Amino acid sequence: MLRFPGRGHRDPGDVVIGPLDLFARVDEALAVQALAFGLDSEEIAVRRQIVLRHMVYRGARALGATTPDGRLVGFVYGMPNDRTHWWSTVVEPYLRAQGNNDWLDDSFVITELHVHPRHQNRGIGRALITTITDSATEPRSILSAIDTDSPARGLYHSLGYTDLARQVFFPSAPRPYAVMGAPLPLRRR
Ligand SMILES: CC(C)(COP(=O)(O)OP(=O)(O)OC[C@H]1O[C@@H](n2cnc3c(N)ncnc32)[C@H](O)[C@@H]1OP(=O)(O)O)[C@@H](O)C(=O)NCCC(=O)NCCS
């Protein structure tokens, strides 16, 4: 467990980063994601099924950021990439077109990373993603993020992720994504 005192102007509390049973706490996690990322109730219901399915994939694991009174305020989950998984099949042609197809092998995928808006910008997101990737046996990590200048993209760049493909369209997602990859362990400040 990693105690994380925070450094923001809001009351930091004492957030702890540790293993998360995402099966048991999927609704709390999706409540955080809904606030952080913006999901309506229909999207939450769809995501719920996806998250529960992901959790049975080989090597899938999750970490949570929890306040002293037990509230989940952030989470990350991911798994070793598998070329047969839906996400991988969507990004594969885009990566291939850029000569980056081999990033889909021996990579740990960050599937979701979200921090409750009241707890953002205190280092919790950075702690979640570095801690989960530190325990990966793969030499690299990949993920997708909305292709815009966001805090998420800023964080990923600062951790050593670079763009492997841009303007990647997922079926039913209105906005294009960037696929990013970084060598592991992630870069420290
Ligand atoms: C992305 C997210 C998880 C980051 O979590 P966080 O706890 O706020 O991030 P941290 O405090 O650990 O890291 C902050 C880093 O993000 C980046 N960042 C934060 N705010 C930023 C901003 N307004 N513009 C650019 N970069 C910013 C910086 O690189 C910053 O690093 P620094 O500490 O050196 O300044 C969080 O902002 C979030 O939940 N966003 C909404 C959901 C989302 O986009 N999730 C990712 C989906 S791909």
UniProtKB/TrEMBL annotation:
SUPFAM superfamilies: Acyl-CoA N-acyltransferases (Nat). Pfam families: Acetyltransf_7. It comes from the Bacteria. Residues 15-185 form the N-acetyltransferase domain. This is GNAT family N-acetyltransferase. It comes from Streptomyces macrolidinus.
